[in-house]
Amino acid sequence: MLRLSMNETTTFRWSFEEDVTNYVAAGIPAIGVWRPKLSDFGEEKGIELLKDSNLKASHLLWAGGFTGSDGRSFRESVDDAKEALKTASALGAPPLVIYSGPRAGHTNNHARRLLKEAVAELTPLAIELNVKLALEPMHPNCADGWTFLTSLDDTLELLEELDCPQAKMVFDTYHLCQNGLCINRIEEIVPQIAIVQLGDAKRPPCGEQNRCQLGEGTIPLKEIVNALCDAGYDGFYDIELLGEDVETSDYQSLLKHAKETFIGE
Asked: Which pTM was predicted?
C-alpha cells in the first residue's frame, strides 16, 4: 500500500498544531516535519502531539549548509545537524533531509570535501540513532542558496564516494523528473532512496520553485510511482507543494485534492 505524507511547507501559513490537526482530519497518515514549525510549537510538545494523534513523521526537514553559505561556520552547521539527528530520533527515526549548501565561492572539489567531511562526522551518531542522512539534489535553476548537488548523477556519484550505509538521497520528482527523464533509471536508484517527494509543475523551474497541484502539470507522476513500486520502494511519498501557483490556495481544498490525486495514482 502506498504511504502518503504531507510536507509542512505545503501548508506554509498554518502552525505546527494546525498542520497536525488538519492532516489528521483529512485522513493523511504522515507528516514531513519542518524544523522551524516544530521549534515554534515546542519540540517536546510537538512530539507528544504527533504520538497522541497517531501521525507518523515521514522525514525531518532540514539540516546542512556545510559550505558556509548561510553565515554559519562548518562547525556550527555540523553541530546543528547533530541536534537535528536527535530530534529525528525522538520523532521515530525518520530520514533527516540534508542540503549541502551551494559552492559559496569554493571550488567544486572543496565544496564536495566539506560535505563528505560533515557526513563522515555525522555518521556515527546517525548509525547509533538509526536515522538516514537524506541528501537532496535540486534542479539547477532553483538550487542557488541550497545545494551544489544539481543532478541525479552528481548525487549518485557522491553517495558512492561516501560509501556510508546511512547516506541516501531524496528523490523529488519536481527536481529530478522534469520531462520524465528519470523513469528509465528508477530501478537503478531505488536502493539509494530514503524518501520520495512528489511535486508537479506546468513548466521547468526558473529561479524560485513554482509547483502546481498534483496531476495538473507535465511530470508523469503515475508512471513514476508505478515504476517505484515495481522496483520495490516501500517508503513514504511526501507531497511538497509550494510556489505562486499554490501559495494562495485554500489549504483544506489543497489537502483534499492532493490525497484524491495520490490515491488515484
From this structure: 0.96
